[in-house]
Recover the amino acids of this structure.
């Protein structure tokens, strides 16, 4: 039923090929011809109106004037080297892993580059251009540097080293920053403190998304395993958690995190009264931390996404045939070994598409922190058009922000399709 | 042993958190669950006792299902108004998103290259942009940028769009409506009977006797004749452009219009993918068998493909309906007073965040359970029918 691709006979002149193609794919019946004509009229109208807005009506200076706000919020300029380092670190690891796991089809970078053109046109000067182009160069360099590794006998070892580098790098960069207020109170130390209310723009969006994905994923896997567990207490807890969280909107979770959990975490832990032993002071300070709004937003996103990831992983666990577990047991592996070495790898591989689409929706959902009055990428739509000279130019900012979200989300979904085919999902 | 440790840890953390909330609230002179009282009778819940029984003092411009509310009513009544608004938005959004999603999903499979490409563009665009941004875009960049009422966009004299909102014709009932409505279930019964009769005749004689046409004919005849006899108890009230507002018809305000448009356009892009996937999941042999039997395109879709695809569609579709209902809480960004927005205003005015967030979660939980129950009912009925 889909549009048919016919092999083009090279002997025919091009206009004959074109006529045949359009007869087969555009004018195959009376109804189709009418549809085609209506569609052409609609596309023409929409294209004309859109082009008129983009090239004539819109005033894009608002984007140029606010690029700092859009990309880094109020992050101090003196500390930009931190973003540079993080970005180049990610680029090296990404380029390396891409080469040793999959192969890069030329289409994805082309789509990505084409979508970046409007971003560049508006960013022709300043740090953003240098930053992004050098990190793309770093990515490419790592990609080509990994070529001999892929062919050598060290490939498997390189793979596990890369996985560890990802985990350690993630923890080293993100966790101290995310938990800064509770871990390192006061000033001083090696680095100056950038309070998280100064994070903003795409930077904050990406921090929220990466921390959200990085923490919610293992938590979701644990919840899924707990749900499949034979221990009734653990199973009931996991089922209740997953079903409750999935039944309510993310904004209510964010509010719960912001209004209730923050209150509970702020108060110091008090001794626990028991029936027989009087009050027991457990001695572990579970609570008593002042958490910032950004950390509470992160916590809300993690609580929310973990439930959805758990449900996806559960589907994967169910798809692993029972014989696999029995074969593992027959080899003398213990319960945890069977789980970690046999069941989980197969289960996760089977649900890669669903997992990535969950990651994409987590990335999109980070925009909801705008409701908690954080200045993420989306919040710029409200700040920028209130500046003198740009009053009321919401449409331009909204379109630009939408494009940024779209480029990232679309690249993620395309990358997952490539990962899927290179891992051979659905082939066995 | 392991379970015991787990349960102990969960209980300790849970206790510490709840005890902390309680002490924090007591410091402010508040109660953790003010509407739960052990003094009252079962189920020990009284929504009129604490702050929920106080005067709300804020206005809600848009109300649903004829529910009445003024600024002098209680917080609890405001909450119910918001709940009904959420239900209304979800129902309209689900209906539009389903129709749009099926159209786009089928279009992606069209043999017409242009149609399938436009449908793909639609899906890839709306699915990869956050819903919150889309809602704000529809509100600020579309409905609030609409022309002033004097220059309303005129859709064939039937509907009008301006910064005041979208004006649509409204169906209004008069005196005979109460009697006429009794004839509608009668007509449905007659239509079912006629259909059964014609199907039996078709089975006996082997000739097509068009049971659907017969049934629709019976339905239209009974409903139409009674409609005429009772002196047309329903009339269509068309809107007209007045000086400051529309006269007649019904006006959908920009907030509601943006919310419904955004929700249904976004959800439709996901439903389209579900529809496409389900149709592709039907083995090609089914289409070929239908072709061999001489069915035409519409018959193939209606009698062979869709009934089978429907069984695959319903579970993921239920998820999308749930998502749409939950996403309607983003109404807060377009200033539409839904359940969540009313909850937010109540938190700001009464300063009772803890019970209010709990109440909001409970309300959304019950809405989710209702949608799941309805869709599961449809699903099991469908399975039972296809198993027969």
């Amino acid at each position: 039923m889909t549009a048919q691709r016919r092999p083009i006979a090279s002997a025919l002149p091009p206009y004959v090929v074109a006529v045949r193609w359009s007869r087969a794919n555009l004018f195959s019946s009376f109804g189709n011809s009418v549809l085609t004509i209506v569609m052409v009229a609609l596309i023409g109208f929409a294209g004309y109106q859109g082009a008129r807005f983009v090239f004539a009506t819109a005033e894009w200076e608002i984007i140029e004037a606010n690029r700092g706000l859009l990309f880094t919020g109020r992050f101090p300029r003196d500390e930009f080297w931190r973003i540079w380092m993080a970005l180049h670190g990610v680029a090296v690891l990404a380029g390396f892993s891409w080469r040793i796991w999959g192969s890069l089809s030329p289409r994805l970078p082309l789509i990505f580059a084409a979508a970046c053109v409007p971003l560049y046109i508006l960013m022709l000067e300043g740090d953003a251009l240098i930053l992004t182009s050098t990190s793309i160069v770093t990515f490419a360099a790592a990609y080509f540097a990994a070529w001999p590794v892929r062919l050598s006998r060290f490939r498997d070892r390189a793979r596990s080293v890369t996985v560890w580098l990802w985990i350690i790098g993630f923890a080293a960069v993100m966790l101290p920053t995310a938990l800064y207020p509770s871990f390192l109170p006061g000033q001083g130390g090696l680095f100056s403190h950038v309070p998280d209310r100064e994070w903003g723009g795409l930077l904050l969006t990406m921090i929220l998304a990466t921390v959200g994905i990085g923490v919610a994923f293992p938590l979701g896997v644990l919840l899924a395993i707990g749900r499949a567990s034979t221990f009734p207490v653990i199973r009931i807890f996991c089922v209740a958690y997953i079903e409750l969280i999935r039944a309510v909107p993310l904004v209510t979770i964010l509010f719960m995190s912001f209004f209730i959990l923050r209150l509970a975490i702020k108060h110091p832990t008090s001794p626990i009264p028991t029936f027989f032993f009087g009050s027991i002071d457990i001695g572990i300070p579970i609570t008593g931390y002042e958490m910032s709004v950004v950390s509470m937003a992160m916590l809300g996103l993690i609580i929310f996404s973990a439930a959805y990831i758990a449900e996806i992983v559960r589907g994967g666990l169910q798809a692993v045939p029972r014989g696999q577990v029995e074969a593992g047991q027959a080899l003398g592996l213990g319960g945890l070994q069977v789980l970690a070495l046999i069941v989980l790898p197969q289960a996760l591989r089977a649900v890669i598409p669903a997992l990535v689409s969950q990651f994409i929706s987590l990335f999109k959902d980070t925009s909801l922190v705008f409701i908690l009055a954080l200045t993420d990428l989306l919040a710029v739509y409200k700040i920028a058009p209130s500046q003198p000279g740009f009053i009321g130019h919401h449409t331009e900012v909204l379109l630009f922000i939408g494009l940024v979200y779209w480029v990232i989300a679309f690249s993620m979904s395309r990358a997952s399709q490539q990962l899927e085919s290179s891992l051979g999902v659905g082939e066995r | 042993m392991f379970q015991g440790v787990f349960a102990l840890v969960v209980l300790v953390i849970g206790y510490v958190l709840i005890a902390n909330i309680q002490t924090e609230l007591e410091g402010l002179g508040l109660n953790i669950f003010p509407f739960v009282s052990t003094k009252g009778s079962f189920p020990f819940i009284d929504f009129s006792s604490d702050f929920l029984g106080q005067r709300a003092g804020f206005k809600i411009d848009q109300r649903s299902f004829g529910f009445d509310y003024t600024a002098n009513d209680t917080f609890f009544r405001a909450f119910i108004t918001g709940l009904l608004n959420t239900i209304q938005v979800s129902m309209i959004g689900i209906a539009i998103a389903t129709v749009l999603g099926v159209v786009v999903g089928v279009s992606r499979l069209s043999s017409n290259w242009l149609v399938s490409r436009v449908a793909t563009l639609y899906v890839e665009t709306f699915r990869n942009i956050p819903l919150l941004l889309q809602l704000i875009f529809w509100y600020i960049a579309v409905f609030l940028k609409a022309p002033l009422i004097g220059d309303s966009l005129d859709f064939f004299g039937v509907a009008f769009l301006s910064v005041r909102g979208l004006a649509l014709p409204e169906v209004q009932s008069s005196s005979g409506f109460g009697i006429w409505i009794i004839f509608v279930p009668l007509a449905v019964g007659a239509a079912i009977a006629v259909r059964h009769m014609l199907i039996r005749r078709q089975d006996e004689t082997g000739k097509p006797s068009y049971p659907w046409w017969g049934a629709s004919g019976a339905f239209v005849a009974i409903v139409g004749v009674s409609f005429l006899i009772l002196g047309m108890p329903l009339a269509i009230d068309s809107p007209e452009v007045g000086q400051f507002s529309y006269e007649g018809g019904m006006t959908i305000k920009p907030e509601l219009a943006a919310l419904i448009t955004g929700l249904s356009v976004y959800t439709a892009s996901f439903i389209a993918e579900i529809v496409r996937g389900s149709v592709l999941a039907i083995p090609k042999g089914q289409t070929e068998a239908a072709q061999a039997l001489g069915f035409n395109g519409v018959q193939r879709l209606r009698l062979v493909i869709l009934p089978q695809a429907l069984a695959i569609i319903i579970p993921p579709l239920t998820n999308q309906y749930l998502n749409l209902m939950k996403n309607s809480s983003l109404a807060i960004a377009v200033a539409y007073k839904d359940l969540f927005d009313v909850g937010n205003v109540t938190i700001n005015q009464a300063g009772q965040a803890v019970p209010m967030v709990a109440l909001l979660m409970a309300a959304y939980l019950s809405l989710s359970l209702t949608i799941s129950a309805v869709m599961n009912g449809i699903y099991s009925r469908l399975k039972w029918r296809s198993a027969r």
Summary: Chain B has three domains: 2-47, 82-136+257-339+346-387, 177-229. Residues 2-47 of chain B form one domain.
